[in-house]
Amino acid sequence: MKGLVFTEFMSLVESTWGEDMVDDLIDEVNPPSGGAYTTVATYTYEELVSLVSALSEKTGIPVPQLVHTFGRYLGPRFASKFPLFFTTSPDLFDLLKKIDNHIHVEVRKLYPDAELPHFSFEQSQPDLLTMHYRSSRHLGDLAHGLIEACAEYYQTPIHIERQQHACDDGAHETFQVRRL
């Protein structure tokens, strides 16, 4: 996983629970990286899982809720760091439909080794977008939170129905995003 995910996760931890919690997590997990993260380096998914699990133990907040919260945190961070993706999309659905064919293409230009989730879309109605999420990692809760955060950016009230599918090689989930 790209270091940006780790630096943003640690930023969330520090802003929510303080610098001591960051130090406690690193001490407890003793990650292979030593906990010194940079945005351009690559770290293992297992390292992120260990950090989130340790945070869950320390806070009593379930892992899925923490990962969802992280997704919601990433929305405004991405809007600030990568404003062009947001300002060139007139609405939420336009942004979401650009994930694979535009946003991830640009990410791969910068980070050719990035392992990114795959999204496909169906839109049978103007106010309903069905997103199919596939990933070798189980981060559907992050995707869910990120979708909600992007909806807030566009000031678009939404309702999300989410369905998990059996999958042998990672995660496959469907998000039905309805504009209200």
TrEMBL record:
Coiled coil: none
Pfam hit, one: HNOB
Domain Heme NO-binding: 2-161
InterPro entries for this protein: H-NOX_domain_sf, Heme_NO-bd, NO_sig/Golgi_transp_ligand-bd
Protein name: Heme NO-binding domain-containing protein
Organism: Pseudobowmanella zhangzhouensis
